Amino acid sequence: MPSTQLHSARRSGGRSARKALRAAKPKLDPCPPGQRGGHYKPLSEHDLQQIYDTAIRLLNELGMGEVPDRLHADLLAAGATDHGNGRVCFPKSLVEDAIAGAAKTFTLHGRDEDRSIVVGGDRVYFGTGGAAVQTLDLDDGLYRPSTLADLHAFTRLQDALANVSWFTRCCIATDVADPFALDVNTAYALIRNTTKPTATAFTLPEHIDPIIAMLDIAAGGEGAFAKRPFMKAHISPVISPMRYGEDAVDVVYGCITHNMPISCITAAQAGATAPATLAGFLAQSLAETLASLVMVHAIKPGHPMIFSNWPLVIDLRTGAFSGGSGETAVLNAASAQLSNWIGLPSGVASSMTDAKAIDAQYGAEKGITSLAAALAGGNLIYESSGMTASLLGASFEAFVLDDEMHSHTYRALRGVEVSEENLGFDAITEAVLGDGHFLGDSHTIAAMERDYFYPTLACRDEPRTWAANGAQDAWTRAKAKARDILTKHHPAYLTPDQDDAIRRVFQIL
Question: Are 388 and 351 in contact (CB under 8 A)?
């Protein structure tokens, strides 16, 4: 076929057809959640081994302090030793038995099974975390105390955002003073407003049983939640440096009783509750998170646990938390690499910007920390959406902006697919011998749908067009999108009968 005829045959049908294709929703999402990470390796193989060996030595020679009686008995039965100095030590063999017996992959269920995700391996998912006590108000742009209404609104908002793969309550309802009412209404907000996998926290262990009863109602009957748990618990059973916290350990026991998956979160602070040196920090933090794993192993081997080794950094000049620093980026990436090297489902944190406004600092800190954590292969990346002000704040606009950022990150993780078709020999030949460009060619159209992500908040207009359209910044566009979702998206994922049954038993505010 002559080149001109070949070129004509490959065209997509004229200018109007091409415009329709560009306007249509892509047939294939070019950057869905669950892309593969692990490309960024801040630690060498020798580094990994040294950090691991130091963590094992800490557990074997120093051990853990303040061990609650029930856990003390279970640890000794599993093979730990009590040296008589108030500390329980873990032989290397016990630690490695716990690693070998740990759940390496498992499903975090959504109440909608289509929204479930499989944790572990090299798949990366962004989600939420945090306990912000302030919310950036959509109307006046200033911070105010977070409320229960804010939590409901944040849950509704993220339900409509594709890149939040699971939702942990991101703020504390400061207008609910009673701890039990707070825990109940937090869990209720999650099950009412989303069917994604969720996570919550328990102020006291005695709150677990009644809240599980509420989750059973949502799941379809007594005992139904334990058969297919759609909510996990965030627990910090280890207090740095190197000791257990009794109330949190009791929460672990309660959650395991109900087959509730857990994220055991170690959140040491470099230079405060852990060494200021990055290597020393990683060794202690790894030892502490392994201590959580040994605890779970002693209670119920193989119970689903996210190995959530979160390095936190403080500004050593002032003591202020520094969530958006380069040190935070490399430490969380290194933590993900360590966890994956050991073979455990990893949880790390990112996007913990110290910025108060949605500004250049916000974008730089979120972009650096979230891309590093994803490239290193963190399975679950917490705090990644909506958080501001060093985790003290949460923002509706930030949720929307971060969701678009995650699409770019997933696209970077997806990388470059090399195939005979993608190499484009025929397309290059045709362009050179034909019109001298690739615009409108079917090869280009196919790649456009398959390989490229097109943002809606980031502006790519030239300056005059941008000015003519109101000279809006990304924050303004994100505010408008957040308002639109909150106005239109009012899901009710509990049936009237389920809601009535819950309200008959619990004080729903």
Answer: no
Dist CA 348 CA 313 (whole Å):
13
Residue 274 domain-assigned (yes or no) = yes
* H or E segment and range at residue 123: none
Tell me phi and psi for residue 41, to 5 degrees.
-130, 90
Distance CA 64, CA 80 (A): 10
Q: Where are the alpha helices (DSSP H) in 302-441?
A: 326-342, 360-375, 396-414, 420-423, 425-433
In a domain, 32, yes or no: no
Domain that holds residue 400: 99-414
Q: What is the pLDDT of residues 429-453, one digit of tens each?
A: 999 999 999 998 999 999 988 899 9
Give this prediction's pTM.
0.92
CATH number at residue 369: 3.20.20.480
Radius of gyration, alpha carbons of the chain: 25
Mark residue 336 as left, alpha or beta (left: phi above 0; alpha: psi -120 to 50; beta: remaining): alpha
- Could you give the CA distance from residue 247 to residue 120 in angstroms, rounded to a whole number? 28
- Cβ neighbours around 417 below 10 Å, total: 9
CA neighbor of 124 nearest in space, from 366, 382, 396: 382
Closest CA to 68 of 264, 299, 277: 299
In eight-state DSSP terms, residue 114 is: G
Alpha-carbon distance of 493 to 509, in angstroms, equals 17
The verdict on residue 94 lying in a domain is: no
Can you tell me the distance from the alpha carbon of 359 to that of 474, in angstroms, rounded to the nearest whole number?
9
- Cβ contacts of 16 within 8 Å, gap of 6 or more: none
Q: How do residues 276-309 score in pLDDT, each as one tens digit?
A: 999 999 999 999 999 999 999 999 999 999 999 9
Number of domains in the chain: 1
Q: Around 72, how many Cα atoms within 13 Å sit in the side-chain half-sphere? A: 14
Q: Is residue 169 part of a domain?
A: yes
Give the pair of three-digit tokens for residue 157: 């908002």
Strand partners, 244: 238
Helices (H) and strands (E) in the chain, counts: 20, 21
Q: Distances from the Cα of 110 to the Cαs of 65, 118, 187, 225, 267, in angstroms? A: 37, 11, 14, 11, 27
